[in-house]
Each structure stands twice: as C-alpha cells, then as structure tokens.
Design brief:
Strand content of chain A: 25-35%
Structural class of chain B: alpha/beta
Order of helices and strands of chain B: HHEHEHEHEEHEHEHEEHEHHHHH
Strand content of chain B: 5-15%
Distance between the termini of chain B: 27 Å
CATH topology of the largest domain in chain B: Spore Coat Polysaccharide Biosynthesis Protein SpsA, Chain A
Largest sheet of chain A: 8 strands, antiparallel
Largest interface: A-B, 20 and 23 residues
Helix content of chain B: 40-55%
Strand order of the largest sheet of chain B: 3-2-1-4-7-6-10-5
CATH superfamily of the largest domain in chain B: Spore Coat Polysaccharide Biosynthesis Protein SpsA, Chain A
Helix content of chain A: 25-40%
CATH superfamily of the largest domain in chain A: Glycoside hydrolase/deacetylase
Radius of gyration of chain A: 29 Å
CATH class of the largest domain in chain A: Alpha Beta
Number of domains of chain A: 2
Oligomer: heterodimer
Number of strands of chain B: 10
Distance between the termini of chain A: 114 Å
Number of helices of chain B: 14
Shape of chain B: globular
Radius of gyration of chain B: 22 Å
C-alpha cells in the first residue's frame, strides 16, 4: 500500500460525496415507500412518469387556454362585441345531481368499464368549460337529504375498485381543473402485495392528503366469482347463495346474511382503521349485476345486501340501467340532460333533448317526426331531463294518420312508465312496470279519430292518471304509482309502417292548469 | 499533437456540472441495482454477480482516485535502455526511434537497442538510417538483426541481454514516447521493491474512425482507472509492451524461464508483456505511472481488432491462471480484487447468454434491463473520459463500446477453447 494517498484533503470530499449518495439512495427508497408503498419499483417509476408528464402537459394546456381566453376577451373589447356569457337569470340551484361512475382511465384501449386518458380529459374539460363543478360526498349526502342547496351544474365523480389507473392519470387533471373525486376501494385488494393494479394503502393515504380525493367502500372481497354448486358453477358474492365445500351444500339464508354482513362491516372498519377517516358510503360491487340481473339461486339475495348495506352506510351507489337517460353521460351532461322546468312549451324550433329510444327520430326545423325502423312495428322517443317531473298535464298536437299513438308519462325508463294509448275510437290507460304491462282502464269514444291536427294528452297527478282528447278528460284511473318524465310512442301492425308527426307539445304543472285552462 | 492529459480536472463550472452528472449516473446505477436486485435475488448466483460487478467497477474508480503519484527525484538517475523489437514496421519504426533522442534525460545515460526480427520490408534500413541520425544524442545505439523471424519474446530477451544499463524501457515499434515520460517511469525504481513500471499509453490514431475512437476511450480508462487501482497494491498485472520499464537486474533472474515458458506443454508465443509482468510481481512490485505518457497505433479495421482482442484474451486466460496461484499472498484487497475480477470475467458470458438468449427464448422478455445496465456502466466510463480528456466523440465511442461488448462477448469462451492454438492470427 505504498502508492495510496489517504490524506484528509483527498478522502474527505469522497467521504462527503459517498455520504450524499448514500443519503440520496436511502431517501429515494423512503420516498418510494411513502408514496408508492408496496408497488414494484419499476411500476412506481412508470406511474411517477405518467403523473409528472400529465401534470406538465395539463399545466401547459391550461396556460394556453387561459391565454386564448384573454386574447378573445381582449379582441371582443376591441371589436365592441359582447363577451358571450350564457348565464342570464342568475345562479339556479340543482334539482338533481348526476354521478359519473368510472373505473380505470387507461392508456389507449377503452372497454366497457374503462375510458381512455384522452376521452376522460375531453369529458372533464367540456364539463369544466360548460360550468360544471364537482362536489364532495358530504355535499352530495346533504343534498340528497334535502339539507343543502347546490348550484345547478354540480356533479359527483366516482371511481370503483381503487385501481392505480384511477389515480395517476386522473389526479393531474383534477388538480388543474380544481375537481375532486371519490374512490371506492376494495378493502382486501389494497393489501395485494406488489400490485401494479390496485392502489396500496400508502398511495391512498397520499390521495387523501391531496384534498382532492375521498374514500368509500367497495366491499372487502366481494368481486371474485364464487362456486355455487359442487361442479364449480360460479355465482355473485352479494346475490347468490354460495356452495359450502366442507358441508357439501349451499349456504342457508342466515349464513348468506351473516356472510354479507361480515364483508360489509369488515370493509368499513378496515378502511376506517387504515386511514383514520369515516367511511360512510358504499358502491355496490359488479355494478347493476349485484341486484338486478345476476341473482341465479337466491332471488332475495340482492335485496338483503341492499338492506344490510343501508344499515352500515348512509349512501349506497347502485348502478341501474339508465335506459337512454343521459344525465350520467358526460357528453350530454352539459345541456339536454339538465333537469327541465315546468311549464314547457316545445314547437321543436330548437332541440330540447328528445332522444329516440328506438326507431328513427327526425328533428328537422319545427318538426318532430317519429318513424319505426323497417324491421319494427313501433318507435319511441322521450324527453331527456324530464324524469324529475311530477303532477303535470302533457298535450301534443299530432298529425296522426294510422296506427296507435302512445303518450307516455311518469316515465322512469323505457320499461317503467304510464301511458295513454290512442287508437281510432278507443283509448286505454296502461301501466308498464319493468317491462310488464297492465291495462288499468279503457274507454270507447267516437271523437278519437285520425286527423292532420288532433290534440291528445295525458294528465298525471297524485294517484290519478287521465287521458285527454282536445284538452278534455276522457278516462281516468286512481292507481298511479310513481312519477317520471314524458315520451311518445307510435305503433302499427305492419312492420316499418308506424309513423307520427308532432307539431307542438305543451306540458303544464297540474296546479297551474286549474286556474287558467284555455 | 495532444500532450499529456491534465491530472486533475479543471475547476471550471462546466467540469463541476459534468462531475455532478458523473455522480448522478452513479446514483442512478445504485438505484438501478436496488430496483433490480429484487428480481435477481431469486437467484443467489446472479444476484451476487450483479452486486459484485457494481462494487468492483465503482471501487476501481475510488481506488484510482486515491492512487498517489510519486514526485520526480532529480537526484535519482539510473541509466536506461530502450529496447524495441520490430517486424515489418517500416512505416513507424523511424519515428519510434527518433523520439529517444528527444527524451528529457542525460544523454550519457541512454542506450538504445533495436531488434529487427526477420522483417521482409525496409524496417532494417530504416533502423540503420535513424541509428546514424541520433547516435550523438544517446550514449550508445545498437541495431540487432535476426535473419529469420524468431518472435517478439526472443527480440525482447535479446534486448535485455545486450543492454548494459539498469532500467529497460520496452517500446513497441508502433508506439511513440513523450520526452517527459522517462523521468516519470524511472522515479519509481528508487523503491527497491519495484520491478516494473507501466507508462500511460493513449491511442495515436484516435480520430481515424469510430473503432479507434472507441479504443481511445478504452485505453484511457483501462490505464487511468484500472491500472491505477492495481498500482496501489503494486500488483499491476500487465505492464504493456507499448511503453513499460523493467529493472534489468530482476528481469535477468527469470529471463530464460520466461523465454522458454510453456503452458500445458505448448510454447507461449503471445502475451509476452503480461507474462513478463507476471514473473515480476511474484517477488516484486509492478506499478503504474500516469504521467509517463506514450502513444500507440491501434487497429483501425474491425477484423484486425477482433483478432488482437482474441490474442489478448488468450494470454489473459493463461496468465490469470498462473497469477491465481500466488495472488492470494498479496494484500488482501489486491487478492480480493483479482479473484473477483476473474470470477466476473468468466461469469459475464453466462450472464450475457442468460439475458440475451435464454430469457428471450424461454420467457419472451427483452433484455432491456441487462443492456441498459451495461450501457449505464459504460456511460459512466465515458463520462469520466469526457471530463478528463475533453469533448471528443466520447458518447459515440461509448455507444460503439457498448455495441462491441455485446458483439464480442463470445471471445472469452472461445479463447478458452482455442487456448492451445498459438498462431498470432494478425499481421
């Protein structure tokens, strides 16, 4: 060791650099652990990279947009034109709150559950520019309880499953737009070691700290398919009786209840313990299949789950078939899906949100023309944003030349509504519930006939359903069960022949009408 | 012409930035190892390899950093003898010899012995012309003429035997010594335990093409970092023929044994310098003088380069085998370094095969981790070169180094297989 220089001058800088390097490496490890938990390191780098690039990109995009706004504002001042602000009559309060339910926001291949980053960005930007703002779960809860008023354009965003791809591609955008979301975590899944799919507790903790995220329960472990017989046929955790391998039998109803209870309470307590928060909301696993279509061997199962969940949680999100109502679709959220107010007069000069449930709807200038497709006997259209209505009369001016006309009221979806069916010389009141139709009343009247400008109507209030001809009541029933929006259907026995033209409709609140009927 | 490199980096802001990047790369390498160790730790053997190679390389940088240069003592002036064996080197031999007249050393203490090893070109004539030209600048110049080719080793031995002076300085017939180099070589011999001193050799034809640029980086690093690290313990394993000094007194003790060296019954005809150093370090020290600068011409054709490398690999295997028998007696750190390197060298083709062939074929995974890890390491070397030498085609050179490493990975296993084949295969 003759030729070695270990003087302080030589060794000290290297010692310092060595220490700095060591500290950096250890600090990097700590940072990774704190922010990414058990996520594999390479995946952590990937997500960090995605988050960083998106943050930079949205910041850049945001500044471009702001510059553009400033420039156009300046231009309009110079040119003396008005800055186009649409809000005329002052802030309105919301009558309904749409809940947008997402799963993952994926790179490039969207599917039934997952939206691409680009689409998600477009949806959020469009909402933001149209004046929509997100609300918190607390605000949503108070709104639903009637204890709080919210601005008209308020909505809630939820993400199911607690996946990493619900956070890393999303948070940069939320931070740029000032939005916030609620993530529904599968309590057991967040402990999946080295998961590249599920968010780990450390990541969720970080999300809470951003102030942009709230956490809800998405069950403890209710997502996988479980066997429902000895052969291994699988069923749904929250709706089916499961097979007990050890006993060689299906579980009893009591065992089903106990199992569901245990899962629900375990999810809640585990999340509360892990994050030191109150978990008060529940998103039912497997969306609508939980209760509506999945149950194979235990019809009461889904209902039991719903009632058990309601004992533990204040709010439960259960996805139902929206049957064409657009309020939960961001692309339409901006305008036509907004709750509409009564009275409503529509001469079809502008599109107020009529949507064809089936058949072809032509909404040309001052024209509402409904026609069945060539392979169908009927066509139906409904008015988006009318679902919250109650107690009203709905009259339509028709050019009615053949077939039957159905005026729909109390419409919840295309399988649940009340209707007046007009055929030449006869009118019937029908009630359709989940696709099953019952005739409630029937009346023959020679006044009901084809014509180029006839007036037909339906009036619903309290428990009464009435059919109107020329604004006069012809038949009524007292068995009305629910409220809802309006729609129009046309039917003809010949395929492809059904068609109808409507020149104007008028919907008035029931109370109004008694005073000033014309 | 490029003069001696600066021993210490300039204290400029740019260099500071580059050093920052250098340590940044080390940081990335450390993180990289931590990240991928988990994947490798399933397999103890490959996990160990991964940790060991990083430790080895980083420790070379660290050791070279604390390598202490020795001051020139003008009171110590042993007589020196330049020995140049040459075969068919008519293009460069004159310049090689002419430079001996310009070295900064007392004229009467210099002798020159050039050996023409049966050249078939004008090498001998060139030697004679230059000998006449410089005869007044040195005490004595002798031209030895082998009528038939006998091999470099015989030429070197002949030079040693004919020399009258204390210190033999071997210079290859295509290498050029700097005037200041002699004193920097000689100064180490004041220590009686030192038997050999390697000079620092850079590439003369660096800017010819990418291949020579790459070799320039390689030469620089292998001297400045790896030899310097070995030098700390006096166990430089190869004082290369292009520019190295040996103490004649010690060489004479084993010169015949060296001259007739056999390995598994086969006469050794290449790796003469490495072999000579190996004899020396069994009893004495071999060190590296980073200030003793010389330049050498390297192959500028890939085919020639590959053959040269193959020859070097073979001699490396042979001499490493021999050195393994006594290295354990040296300083523990020197021994540890040596045996680690032997392990790494033999395992690296296996790791290579595993990452580049086995995993892609069996598991359909791309060798991204392996190749990027390799690149990071070479990038670190390239940065060091860039900082010390200045802005050259260093990055491109590193890329080609990387490429060549991948391309020439088969060489070591192949060298093992063909160890007994003694043909030079080049020139």
């Amino acid at each position: 060791m003759h030729y070695i220089d270990l003087s302080i001058k030589k060794v000290l800088p290297m010692l310092v650099i060595g220490m700095v390097l060591l500290v950096c490496v250890v600090a990097t490890g700590n940072l990774k652990e704190r922010r990414y938990g058990s996520t594999p390191p390479v995946a952590s780098i990937g997500f960090a990279w995605q988050e960083l690039t998106l943050r930079l990109w949205y910041a850049f995009e945001g500044s471009l947009w702001k510059t553009g706004q400033l420039a156009s504002a300046a231009a309009s001042v110079v040119l003396g034109s008005e800055v186009g602000s649409t809000g005329g009559a002052g802030p309105k309060t919301a009558q309904a709150i749409p809940v947008l339910t997402y799963h993952r926001i994926v790179g490039n291949k969207s599917d039934l559950n997952n939206v691409t980053i680009r689409n998600f960005r477009d949806q959020m930007l469009m909402l933001k520019h149209a004046g929509w703002e997100t609300i918190t779960l607390e605000e949503y809860k108070e709104f639903m309880e009637g204890a709080r008023e919210l601005p008209e354009r308020s909505f809630l965003i939820t993400f199911d499953d607690g996946a990493k791809e619900s956070f890393y591609p999303v948070d940069p955008l939320f931070s740029a737009l000032g939005y916030e979301g609620a993530i529904y975590v599968i309590a057991n899944a967040m402990y999946t070691p080295k998961s590249t799919y599920y968010l780990s507790p450390n990541e969720l903790q970080r999300m809470i700290k951003t102030g942009r995220w709230e956490i809800g329960s998405h069950s403890y472990d209710g997502h996988r398919p479980y066997p429902t017989n000895a052969a291994g046929k699988t069923g749904i955790f929250f709706a089916d009786k499961l097979w007990r391998e050890n006993d060689g039998r299906l579980e009893t109803s009591e065992e089903f209840v106990a199992r569901v209870q245990k899962d629900l309470s375990r999810a809640k307590s585990m999340l509360e313990l892990e994050f030191g928060i109150t978990v008060d909301t529940f998103a039912f696993p497997l969306g609508n299949e939980t209760g509506i279509e999945g149950a194979a061997n235990f019809p009461d199962g889904a209902g039991i789950t719903e009632s058990e969940a309601s004992k533990l949680y204040t709010l439960g999100f259960l996805q139902t078939d929206n049957n064409g109502f657009t309020f939960n679709y961001p692309q339409n959220l901006s305008e036509s899906g907004l709750p509409k107010e009564l009275p409503l007069e529509d001469d079809f000069s502008v599109d107020r949100g009529w949507i064809a449930a089936w058949g072809a709807l032509d909404m040309g200038r001052n024209n509402f023309s409904l026609r069945a497709n060539s392979d169908a006997s009927s066509a139906e259209a409904f008015l988006d944003g009318s679902v919250l209505w109650d107690n009203y009369s709905f009259n339509a001016a028709l050019n009615w030349q053949d077939g039957s006309v159905f005026l729909l009221a109390d419409l919840v979806n295309s399988k649940t509504y009340d209707t007046c069916v007009f055929s030449p010389g006869i009118v019937r009141i029908q009630s359709t519930r989940n696709g099953e139709t019952r005739v409630l009343a029937e009346k023959r009247d020679p006044r009901i006939a084809y014509g180029s400008d006839v007036r037909a109507g339906i009036r619903v209030h309290d428990s009464v359903i009435e059919c109107l001809w020329d604004f006069g009541s012809i038949v009524e029933t007292y068995t009305r069960a629910q409220a809802g929006g309006i729609g129009i259907q046309v039917w003809d026995s010949e395929l492809g022949a059904a068609h109808l033209q409507v020149s104007e409709i008028l919907v008035r609140p029931f109370n109004d009408q008694e005073g000033g009927a014309d | 012409m490029e003069t001696n490199q600066k021993l210490f980096p300039q204290k400029s802001l740019r260099d500071l930035g580059l050093w920052f990047v250098f340590f940044g790369v080390i940081y990335v390498i450390l993180i990289y190892k931590v990240v991928f160790y988990e994947a490798l730790s399933n397999h103890l053997f490959f996990g160990m390899y991964s940790v060991l190679i990083t430790t080895y390389i980083l420790s070379r940088f660290l050791l070279s950093y604390v390598h202490k240069p020795v001051r020139v003592d003008t009171g110590y002036e042993p007589s020196i003898a330049f020995v140049v064996p040459a075969k068919n080197e008519e293009a460069h031999i004159a310049e090689t010899i002419r430079r001996f007249a310009e070295v900064e050393y007392p004229r009467e203490k210099i002798e020159v012995i050039v050996i023409n090893d049966g050249s078939t070109d004008r090498t001998l004539e060139e030697m004679r012309i230059v000998a006449e030209e410089i005869k007044y600048s040195v005490r004595r110049i002798e031209v030895v003429d082998f009528k038939t080719n006998r091999g470099k080793r015989y030429g070197m031995a002949e030079g040693v035997k004919r020399a009258e002076h204390d210190i033999i300085i071997f210079i290859d017939s295509d290498s050029f010594i700097e005037p200041s180099a002699v004193r920097h070589l000689v100064k180490y011999f004041a220590d009686r335990t030192v038997g050999a001193v390697s000079g620092h050799t850079d590439v003369w034809n660096r800017d010819t093409n990418l291949l020579t640029q790459m070799q320039a980086v390689r030469y620089y690093i292998s001297f400045k970092v790896y030899k310097a690290a070995e030098s700390i313990f006096g166990t430089v394993t190869c004082c290369p023929g292009c520019c190295s000094a040996y103490r004649r007194e010690y060489v004479l003790k084993f010169i015949d044994e060296w001259l007739h060296q056999k390995f598994f019954g086969v006469q050794c005809t290449y790796g003469d310098d490495r072999s000579l150093t190996n004899f020396m370090i069994q009893k004495y020290r071999a060190v590296y003088s980073s200030e003793a600068s010389a330049h050498t011409i390297v192959p500028d054709k890939f085919k020639v380069y590959v053959r040269q490398q193959q020859r070097w690999k073979k001699s490396w295997i042979r001499e490493t085998f021999i050195a393994s028998s006594f290295m354990w007696k040296k300083h523990p750190l020197a021994a540890l370094s040596f045996y680690s390197y032997v392990f790494l060298a033999f395992v690296s083709p296996i790791v290579f095969f595993r990452a580049m062939v086995w995993f892609p074929v069996v598991y359909h995974t791309w060798p991204v981790v392996y190749l990027s890890g390799l690149f990071l390491m070479l990038f670190l070397h390239g940065l060091y070169y860039r900082i010390q030498v200045g802005p050259r085609a260093w990055f491109l050179a590193i890329c080609s180094f990387w490429f060549n490493t991948v391309l020439l990975m088969w060489q070591l296993p192949w060298a093992v297989v063909t160890l007994r084949d003694t043909r030079w295969g080049t020139r």
